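discrete fold record:
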Amino acid sequence: MRVTTIEACLVAVPLRGAFKNAHAVKTVQKSVVVRVKTDAGFEGAGNVDPSPGYSEVTPETILAAIESRLAPALIGADVTNIRSAVARMERAAPGELDAQAAIEMALVDLNGKALGIPAHRMLGGAVRHLIQLNGWIGIVPPDAAASAARDFLARGYRSTKIKVGASVEEDRDRVAAVRAAVPDMEIRVDANEGYDVDGAIRLARALAPYRVRLFEQPVPRHDFAGLAKVRRSIDIPVMADEAIVGLDTLAQVIRLEAADLVKVKVMKQGGLFRCLQAIDMAVGAGMQCVVGHGFGLTLNTLAELHVASMSESILEACESVGPAKVDGDVVTAPLRFETGSVKLSDAPGLGATLDETLLGRYRIPAA
């Protein structure tokens, strides 16, 4: 079974309101959707969801890499040999992990559909079939944060992330309000690189009374030494996120003992296979992992839910909650996260099918 065509396009899907973190305020999700077709009539789809400030690439540069380098390199390739396809892509566009992930995701989807099995079975099997989800609270006033936390708790969420990065005092007050509103809920805080080393240490010490489970990416992504210093100076476990891209960055975090946990994303690690490789590498170093992206469409989310099901060393409460924030999608049966957990899909492939009408509705016309 050989690749005959690879189609890619940009879509813009509105969000359910405005979401603020230390990087930006978002009201729309611009994503890249990929479809791979074969000479046997099978096809698969994937999508990636870069975010301004967080991602080091844009939807436009991802699309350009797919159209100009990756798609030509894979025409005629054996779609059943995904590892070979990934190697071809790396030779054609070294380091273009987001673009490679979109195609690899589609290849996983295609192979699962051809075999009639879900992605998690094709990749080795799931150890959990009910995926707990993590709530999210942006940089909002304390009363709004507390109200959001109570709503998540009422819907069955047992853990929530709170965005920080405004100021030590404002961030402390937001976390304090949430802890008072939901005394037994797990709280994670995420600075999205919003602090320098000294500020991150001051915030962590200010948060000491509020039983914070982890402190995510307190300092800029390339400051590995600063991340290590924060970790040595505070009692809250530190999680690296923006700092983790390819395996080389994960290796650097491990060597420097710069984090207690790492955050992985199928998009940023270059696909499901390499995301699982990163998890195994982190686990081998004695670190737990969190899976998830904050903004995204159904296909990318399903890919991460399959990954999140496959290791007991992945911290419960998956952060792949993009479908709860978007007011639209490009598949026939979009995910809807109304409660704090989701059942792992046993449908073939990733578990979704592109909807031509919706794809046309949200598609951004080519320039």
Remarks:
- The mean pLDDT is 96.
- The chain has two domains: 3-116+354-362, 122-343.
- The radius of gyration is 20 Å.
- Residues 97-115 form the longest helix (19 residues).
